[in-house]
């Protein structure tokens, strides 16, 4: 079974369009990008396109890779204090010479559409659920894949994807096995799980050695290989083996974009 994200995204889109029509002011999402990474460009292009379709202004603030951290902080502060901007995201990753948390923490809670600021407790119920984690949960709900009591392996523990995904799964009663670069014998762990989620960003990392025939595979990774978008999972090798799997492209990616705009509307409704 192929778990496509498009039906879920379209369902969300219909709801959001109706909400936006009722607003007095056109919503504005600001995206801060540093550098010119190809994968980031793909994400941002999709966000701008989706925003336009829904009637949301998407403001892209793009800076050179060599921008100083203090100057980037000033730019984020400007957006934070701009009443015409309803929410802000920083397109990750940003260059290693810049402290990611220092930038994210400059985004006020009321404008933090990605919910990634570390000034807020990760375990708080009063924060926005990061879009990728929200997308994973909505996809599983849509296809009626239960989580309570299930064993779930999450490979990759970034602040953008793996960590918030793991937290949301645990909130719903799953037994989560958090795997990262330091974890030993990952294939042995994942083969014993009901669900495997990969959020690493390494093409074709997951092969048939990681999976079992009753398993659900959620591929969060997006990578470009020889001009084509591919996931963390070797789809051709794994799809015939498992029970269900998300494709790349066409799986979690489009749904994550929709969930970002859900977060935007949630922030506006709280004002």
TrEMBL record:
GO terms for biological process: L-histidine biosynthetic process; methionine biosynthetic process; purine nucleotide biosynthetic process; tetrahydrofolate interconversion. The keyword NADP applies. The lineage of its organism: Bacteria, Candidatus Zambryskiibacteriota. Catalyzes the oxidation of 5,10-methylenetetrahydrofolate to 5,10-methenyltetrahydrofolate and then the hydrolysis of 5,10-methenyltetrahydrofolate to 10-formyltetrahydrofolate. This is Bifunctional protein FolD. GO terms for cellular component: cytosol. Homodimer. Keywords: Amino-acid biosynthesis, Histidine biosynthesis, Hydrolase, Methionine biosynthesis, Multifunctional enzyme, NADP, One-carbon metabolism, Oxidoreductase, Purine biosynthesis. Its EC number is 1.5.1.5, 3.5.4.9. InterPro entries: Aminoacid_DH-like_N_sf (IPR046346), NAD(P)-bd_dom_sf (IPR036291), THF_DH/CycHdrlase (IPR000672), THF_DH/CycHdrlase_cat_dom (IPR020630), THF_DH/CycHdrlase_NAD-bd_dom (IPR020631). GO terms for molecular function: methenyltetrahydrofolate cyclohydrolase activity; methylenetetrahydrofolate dehydrogenase (NADP+) activity. NADP(+) binds at residues 156-158, 181, 222. It catalyses: (6R)-5,10-methenyltetrahydrofolate + H2O = (6R)-10-formyltetrahydrofolate + H(+); (6R)-5,10-methylene-5,6,7,8-tetrahydrofolate + NADP(+) = (6R)-5,10-methenyltetrahydrofolate + NADPH. It comes from Candidatus Zambryskibacteria bacterium RIFOXYC1_FULL_39_10. Residues 4-114 form the Tetrahydrofolate dehydrogenase/cyclohydrolase catalytic domain. Belongs to the tetrahydrofolate dehydrogenase/cyclohydrolase family. It comes from the Bacteria. SUPFAM superfamilies: Aminoacid dehydrogenase-like, N-terminal domain, NAD(P)-binding Rossmann-fold domains. Residues 130-269 form the Tetrahydrofolate dehydrogenase/cyclohydrolase NAD(P)-binding domain.
